[in-house]
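Incident review: delayed structure delivery

Summary: a single-chain prediction request sat in the queue longer than the usual turnaround. Root cause was a stuck worker, restarted by the on-call engineer. No data loss occurred. The affected request and its eventual output are reproduced below so the record is complete for anyone auditing the incident later.

Affected input:
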Amino acid sequence: MTQVDTDAQAPPAAKLTLPTLTMMVVGSMVGAGVFSLPSRFAEETGVAGALIAWAVAGTGMLMLAFVFQRLAIRRPDLDAGVYAYAKAGFGEYLGFFSAFGYWASACVGNVTYWVLIMSTVGAIAPALGEGDTVLAVVISSVGLWAFFLLIRRGVKEAAAINRIVTVAKVVPILVFVVLALFYLKPHVFAENFAGADYAGSLFNQVKGTMLATVFVFLGVEGASVYSRHAGRREDVGRATVLGFLSVFAIFASVTIVSYGLMPMSEIAALRQPSMAGVLESAVGTWGKVFVSVGLIVSVLGAYLAWTLMAAEVLFVAAKDEDMPRFLARSTAADVPVPALVMSTILTQIMLVVTLFSDDAFNFALDLTSALTLIPFLLAAAFAVKIARTGRGRDLAVGLLATLYTAFLLYAAGLKFILVSFIIYAPATVLFLMARREQGRRLFSPRELVILAVSTAGAALGIAALALGWISL
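Output delivered after worker restart:
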């Protein structure tokens, strides 16, 4: 059995209510991504493509939100959400990969937050560049470990801070939307409708935005990750849907109104955070400063929420004996410190990797999205699997969510799939450690096939990087 430090002596943790769970979902989703949306969309598509992209992404992610809602009700025995569903549906090894991939995506996603903060400050301190200089990485590393010390003090304290920060960071985004509507130029909006010459076909425009939409919607599953802390199980599903609907309206609005302020090509050329540059074009320098301050508050809050979720996934996987036992240790304050340390270390490593990337922010953003797709696909497929014996509506929702995540894998492209394999494959070492601790057979025949596929994918990815077929 897994041993946990001080669990027997620890007092019961306070249960999370529906408002708190909803705030955690919103806090997880409203982060760095929303401040980068104007330029990210303008690089790929015009207004028409953006509207279609949001319709596709909104429908697909709503189906995933419904999937997590229904699974929380139908399988209340499964905690930790994404990881638990993959394991229950498709076995321990794929469940392990789901847990590791979701955890790794959270850590890589945290890198985007530090890059964006440094890029924001870099507008007045050129030595920080666009968040990808040595000085920027050093300062980010200091902040990274400062947050580690904060979170180590207790999950309850960190969650309370997150609730306050969530409210604070939504305000500047709403102000941006209102001001953009007030200063909107109809002729500029009309000129941006079809897209610029560089955008390509409408299908390619929509396809090019998919990873960006995945990134900003990461966190829709946040309530299910914290299901073991929920006061009422049904609140997990409600918080998921309420959180999604709230942020969907915000994200789509930020993107669409931006097309009414500047030509599409100029938006695409803005440095991150591009939302600051868009507002500056309308109201002057104070608009840029206002958005920049809001971004820093937003990003720090999202970083806090995602670090908590990353550690939680490793901790629960270890409790279920799918990760090594040392990751199942927690303190009297219910903080899984070893899991938190591993999360911080991976984030630190990826921060250093950004020094070798051509575009640190977009690389980390796209890789975060790509790493999440396998866990999402397995959760959606599990919903289909159990819905075959239930209601037709649940089956339809599961099928739509599965088709959507499969399309996202196609949209991600070969580059990020191969880089994902490079990250996934070495993780098998942790799986082997857990199996050895339990004195079990290392791999079943089916698991050997999965191992062979992941290893081959990683080898191909390394070869592609070495030969210059793909680049960071």
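Verification: The CA atoms of residues 300 and 359 lie 21 Å apart.
Action items: add queue-age alerting; document worker restart procedure.
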